[in-house]
Design a protein that fits this description.
It is a single chain. The protein is mainly alpha-helical. The protein is 67% helix and 5% strand. It folds into two domains: 410 residues, Na+/H+ antiporter like fold (Up-down Bundle), CATH 1.20.1530; 171 residues, Roll (CBS-domain). The chain has 25 helices and nine strands. The protein has a four-stranded mixed beta sheet with strand order 3-4-5-6. It has a three-stranded mixed beta sheet with strand order 7-8-9. Strand 7, helix 23 and strand 8 form a beta-alpha-beta unit. Helix 4 crosses helix 14 and helix 10 packs parallel to helix 12.
Amino acid sequence: MFLSPYYVYNLLIMIDKIPIIGIALVMAFIAGKLARYFKIPKVSAYIFTGLILGPSVLNLITHEFAESFHIINEIAFGLILFNIGGEFHKGLLKKVTRLNVKYALNLCFIIFFSVAVLSFGFTYFDANLDVTQRIVLACFLGIIAIAAAPPTTLLVIKELESKGPITQSIMVYLATGTIIAIVGAHALTFFFQDIGMITGGGNAGPLVHAALLIWSVLGSILAGSLLGFLFSVWEQKENNEAELLFASIVVILLGFTVSHYLHLEPLLVSLFMGFAVVNCSPTGKSLHVRIKGMGLSIYALFFLIAGAHIHLQEQYKTVGLVGLVYILSRSVAYLFGARLAAKLSGSPAKVGGAMSLAVLSHGGAAMAITAQLQKNSNDEIFATISTIILSAVFIFELGGPLVLRTVLVKMGEVKVGGLLTGTETGLAFYDLIHNFLTNIGFIKPAEHHQIKTIKLLINRKVFAIEQSAKVKEVINFVDKHTMPIYPVIDKNNAFVGTIDIANLKEVMFDPFRAPLTRAKKLIGSTNYISELSSLQEAADSFNESGQQVLPVIDTSNHKLVGMLSYTDVVVSLKGTGFHDPSTKDTTEEQTASKKDS
């Protein structure tokens, strides 16, 4: 087969990119682990990693390199909007009220008006912009400011498994704000083209543009719903789990293709595709959950590239006053607008207070809209808008997730299971090497009776609950994790004790004690085994405590290491002369029975 020089050239370029992608993903993986340790959202860690690797610091991922991965952005944007649509399943739709929608619409209008007015007012001091450019710039910044970074927000909510009225308000605003921002930017483009304030649009008049706008909205809803229905039909006949993510990417890219040829909005197509899938298929909700989980690797690369798009040195020079005004005006608009929207819609004051900080993140949808604007018109004002939005993304995407996490935790909408993550303590380096040599046959595997310590028997996947957790949070944790014992730790992950389920049952139905009781008061046992214990010492500890499972502790810092089962210890002690005391009574009964017979 003959390979053209052009094909070979592109192949060499892609091969040259592979080492950089490898470095980037390794650093993203490490950043994600560190994010859990420092209790910050992974999104912020991914973006910051991209910033470090990008032109601002190391320049490993150049601007041209990041641009060449636009296909990743399109897949990520499609998955993001698909997931937003999928969140509106039957269960959530039942909970969504007219009040939620009214609040979201009020907030969208307030944000648009506030940001547009403030941006127009303060750009008076920018000598490089005339009145026409100021009006166009202010209106587009106002409409883009509504978009509240669906990917960032959803990833934080998923990571924390947040549920409640504030989370519900956030979800409704994400969908409403995204649709209004996409359609509004499209409408503003047509309007300013018709009156000659920006270039493009050809010879089409206002009526044609109005018809195109209506078609782009209604056609996108129809196309997305139809593709989602067809995907649901296929999913009912396909049982191969490995095909699921591939099929979802295929159908999303198909949506982009249909959008291109039919002049639709690809983001709206993906949104309604997800909505159709989750509501058409009887297994739509679980399907949506699986697709969300499988898309995380694509999100990581997406956020890395988003961070690499930030070039602080250049953007600091070019954005100047306008960029600073946009960041400040958007922050102020959400801070006060969320509270005003609550008053206008009759929503609870706590919703307004929480929403003023919960939806500050600003990235995915805003970046998608600015990219679409530049495709629709080559007017230089859109290059300025793009630079401003990218600069704002740096601020809002790093700080927004942190604030959102704090708000959700403070409002009590996060299960303890979402706050406390499983920690898996690895084996020592020597043990890993020993396991490797054993598995490849260089060392003969040890028989159970040859195992001398408990180190290889420890279950190191540990989930624990913090001692300050409320009874409701403890119940949620117990519902989520089926475990033989429920360890309690302090803020430093030091072991405190294990929860007594009998104590929990006694308190949980008491309307007076339940609100005042914390996990620490539910502790029934403080028994544990040292990680350095021998098998015989572990057996003695089990016999003294009378328990079948005990927590294992690193005695140097009292931190929880894992759990140990008495059964595993007994099996390992077979052939060493060890006698299990628990079998004593049974043996004596059998002997007495034989004598009687």
